[in-house]
């Protein structure tokens, strides 16, 4: 619906979510080019708000305001927020994970929520989401070391271990196998419209 002709290989889950979102947007506003841009702009505004909320919780309202201002004037975010492409949605998902991780710091039993979301985004949407997963895991480790608190790390160890494992798997799939699979798809299907998640890279390699 949003990006026209479906390529031979693409991010199926991401486009399913994005298409579902725009189905609601078009149902409310009507179908059209400006409605598509408006739907993405709303997600871009959500990115700015999430940036402010997360940084404010971590470093105060002034730092949050400056971070939100930088996000609002960032060329990449502004560019993608003007077109109905899914990359703005990926940014919003990463920021949402970071915000939830900050909110749930005092409730470690619920920290599986941001870690699970970030892991799903990393494996099934964009490997770039792994950077947020890595930030959360490394920060928890450094915090435990600084506090010299083994209990702090013990409560978070399963999530940290899973997070680092997912980042490692996504890195291997993306950097070691991506080019090989890309060349395979180009030679077999004569298509350059390839934008895959790490999980799809691994699945495609198993079918080669």
Structural commentary:
The chain has helices spanning 12-29, 33-59, 61-72, 75-81, 87-103, 112-124, 130-147, 150-189, 198-206. It has 208 residues and is mostly helical. Helix 2 runs antiparallel to helix 4 and helix 8 (150-189) packs across helix 9 (198-206). The longest helix has 40 residues, at 150-189. It is globular. The two termini are 30 Å apart.
> Gap between N and C termini, in Å?
30 Å
Uncertain residue segments: 1-11
Percent range for helical residues? Answer: over 70%
The number of helical runs is: 9
Order of helices and strands: HHHHHHHHH
Q: So what's the oligomer here?
A: single chain
Shape: globular
Query: Tally of extended strands?
Result: 0
DSSP strand content? under 5%
User: Which whole number gives the mean pLDDT?
Assistant: 75
Helix/strand layout:
Blueprint: H1 12-29, H2 33-59, H3 61-72, H4 75-81, H5 87-103, H6 112-124, H7 130-147, H8 150-189, H9 198-206
Helix pairs in contact: 2-3, 2-4, 2-5, 5-6, 6-7, 6-8, 7-8, 8-9
